[in-house]
Specification:
Elements (H helix, E strand, L loop, with lengths): L16 H14 L8 E2 L1 H8 L3 H13 L3 E3 L5 E3 L6 H4 L3 H9 L3 H12 L6 E4 L1 H7 L4 H13 L4 E2 L5 E3 L4 H22 L5 H16 L6 H14 L7 H8 L3 H12 L9 H13 L3 H29 L8 E4 L2
Amino acid sequence: MLQEAGCDPITGAAPRLYERAFQILAEEIRQKTLGPGSHLNETGIAARFGISRPPARQALLQLQEAGLVEKAAGRGFVVCGDPDDKAVSQAPPELQRLVSASSWERIYNQVEAEIISRIAIGSWRIVETELARTYHVSRTVARDVLARLQQAGLVRKDDRSRWFAPALTPHHVGELYEMRWVLEPAALKNAAPNVPPSLLARMRCNLEEALANAANLGSADLDRFENEMHVELLSHGSNATMIQTIHTHQSLIIAHRFLYRHTNEMFEVEPFLPEHLEIVEHLQAGDPGKAADALADHLKISLDRSLSRIDMIATYCQPEPLAFLEKLDI
């Protein structure tokens, strides 16, 4: 989290959010982790660093002033330089493989953020050719990104094999939660014998501290607690097929990164915190059955809260048009 950045050793002042984002991105550009031609925009930077769009915009302007990025032909910015830069082509084989292998990673978070910020208000067709053109990548890279988004449960293919992102309608969200409260408790029972006591101790400590300091929690903190409970904890199960199936129905965990950021003040104390704590306490007491029941209850209760967050977003969310996303009337 950028909020946790340390103070400047000389002035004692903590760097502002846009300064930290600028520093990290500038270093990635100089190290060619973000290679020439990579696309950057406010939404992607805000999602990556857990900040709002104004500091993300300021970070981009600083990068532009430093000559590291330039305005893209369409929307956003691109990293300056020739995509076939000799500095990359003449680099050691290990670096060449890294640059090649990470092509999809350089745009994945940005594409994910653009989709998440829109599915509260409708379903969207994803045009693969326009996606590649927008981010200055090949169609192979664009297809790779979409395949990974499909694995995460955010996008699907229709009966004509066209990509689309389904809206977070009450029906769709209800289906996702129903799958989760069937699958996740079973996965928790399977994982319980393998969960390290240190993980449970860390989770309990984090949750107790969060409840004691609820007013100071940010959306990134809530994301972390969700990931610990629904991803990290369940990953200790021995049934790989069950874990993979769960992942394809956990798109709401990804969507909540956006929802929490824009509905963080909906509750004085985030309701899922004591529910998570109860689950951890049952596991520490050696009773995975009660923990699984508590997890099922938590997911059933969470359905209405998620729908309330989505409704709040849908009332004021007016996303900017993007060439690769077309609103569907379904």
